[in-house]
Amino acid sequence: MTFVLASPLCVKSNHLPPQVFELSIAGELRSDPESIDAASRDYGNIVREFPSAVMDPLSVRDVRTLVSFVYGNGSVGLTLAARGRAHSVRGQAMACDGIVINMTRLVTPVNVSWSRSLGHYADVGGQELWIDVLKETLRLGLSPVSWTDYLYLTVGGTLSNAGIGGQAFRYGPQISNVHEMDVITGKGELVTCSKEDNPELFYAVLGGLGQFGIITRARIALDRAPTRVKWIRMLYTNFSDFSRDQEHLISSQEGMTVPDYVEGLLLMHETQLDDYYSAADRARIMPLITENGGLVYSIELIKYYNERTKSSVDLDVKILLEGLNYVPEFAFERDASYVEFLDRVHTAELELQSQGLWNVPHPWLNLFVPSSRMADFDVGVFKNIVLKNNITTGPLLVYPMNRNKWNDQMSAVTADEDVFYTVAFLHSSGFDQWQPFDAQNEEVIRFCKDNNIKIKQYLPHYTSRAHWANHFGSKWDTFRKRKLMFDPKNTLSPGQRIFNSQ
Ligand SMILES: Cc1cc2nc3c(=O)[nH]c(=O)nc-3n(C[C@H](O)[C@H](O)[C@H](O)COP(=O)(O)OP(=O)(O)OC[C@H]3O[C@@H](n4cnc5c(N)ncnc54)[C@H](O)[C@@H]3O)c2cc1C
Fold it and tell me: Which domain of life does this protein belong to (predicted)?
């Protein structure tokens, strides 16, 4: 196996102050080669940065003790990275020469409560996996409302980005469904924050790329959980029908029949059609892709139901599909449990794990694109770059969201239009074969720049301060001021390379 890049900015000095090993903590601080090696890797398998030590905390107090030490007495420049599952793809949860905090070693219960003002909610640790939040809340017939496609991610990790998926058009991203958090700031203070209390910290942390504090508890909004879903896919041979129908579906008003989830993806020759489709369906779809020049678009739509709504769900689906312009005979329907649907990527993960294809490089590019430029993006990127290069492996997701479900006071950045799309190039490659994918990613970004398509990166990765300033745009000043307020020594999440870049 050939490895990959160490960041050019990472110069190791092993300069940990000896007092750090004398801190009164219940957990462990390790510097053995195995722990250091594990903390120098992530899901991307592209960047490697070696920390000087790794902390396995046993309590929130342990984390706070370490952060306070670094802020109060630590040597200048010592950095700390909270590490969820390191499902980042560009070293964002690493800390070159610093200390990586393995958040998932913490164990805290999921507490479900109800209040008149908030309804049902769950208090969960920042280290909690969303799959465990789902399992615990389902015991009471409840569930969070906004999901990522994959549930083996931590609450702290997704709230540091946004947490997007097919429910976001309706409920907003996961960061729009948090009532309150406990956060250990870069100054070592443990602060409870919400829209009402310490709002500056609350909004900073949501989508804040780990720059302002370590989330140790989040209060997540819950609703009644459905038990089953109608899982629909429709195929399109032209982009304008595909995007018109997606935007129509996400514009449904509450009170009407509203879908519960809308996503979309591109089907190309290289696309592995998943087990959703029968062998007979696959045999029909492949020629459609060929006839259409190698590219077909697919909308994925979900309608939830339970015992009470079982008798009306078919009518709801019929209403939702009415007037849509998919290719006749290319609409598919499956019935699945709510959990089977939400946990679908884990099923794919197990399959890839068994083939040794999960822990490979992931040169991903995730973009937010304004709706008004998607037709240009379709021609310029999907047809003239992706199809022509013919190297795509892994899903290419395309679906719209409503900007009014995002709160502009949060750190998270969107494209500047009422409706914008997420376009996710979720490539995987061989260990010494990720560079052509990155070259294609660069080509996509260059095309957008040359054609004045004002994209924003989601799960962004830049290496220069100027790029970060451009990424945050009008939010950059606030972002910098908040950094000074909550992490003035630039201690936290150095792997994002924002305040430690040139
Ligand atoms: C297979 C797969 C599918 C995915 N699907 C989606 C999707 O559908 N939608 C979506 O939005 N994202 C998706 N992601 C991306 C995911 O949201 C990010 O990888 C995210 O970083 C969460 O991963 P993590 O919990 O492992 O966090 P890490 O990668 O461990 O951390 C991410 C960043 O957050 C910081 N951080 C971690 N924990 C905390 C904490 N408690 N407090 C403060 N900062 C913290 C880290 O220092 C780092 O900077 C997917 C990723 C994978 C691998």
Answer: Eukaryota
Q: From 185, 189, 179, select the one nearest 205 (Cα to Cα).
A: 185
Quote the number of domains for the chain: 3
Is the C-beta atom of 177 inside 6 A of ligand 1?
no
**Do 188 and 254 lie in a common domain?**
no
Identify whether residues 234 and 218 lie together within a single domain: no
Kindly report, residue by residue over 301-316, the tens digit of the pLDDT.
999 999 999 999 999 9
- Please write the tens of the pLDDT for every residue from 218-277: 999 999 999 999 999 999 999 999 999 999 999 988 788 999 999 999 999 877 899 999
Name the closest-CA residue to atom 50, ligand 1: 150
Are 415 and 473 contacting, i.e. CB atoms less than 8 angstroms apart? no
Residue 386 located in a structural domain: yes
Residues 26 and 154 in one domain: no
C-alpha 495/C-alpha 42 separation (Å) is 11
Nearest to 175 by CA among 153, 191, 156: 156
Rounded to the nearest angstrom, the distance between the alpha carbon of 88 and the centre of ligand 1 is 6
If one residue of 67, 158, 405 were mutated to test the ligand 1 pocket, choosing by the most ligand atoms within 8 A of its CB, it would be: 158
| Banded pLDDT at 13 (limits 50, 70, 90) | low
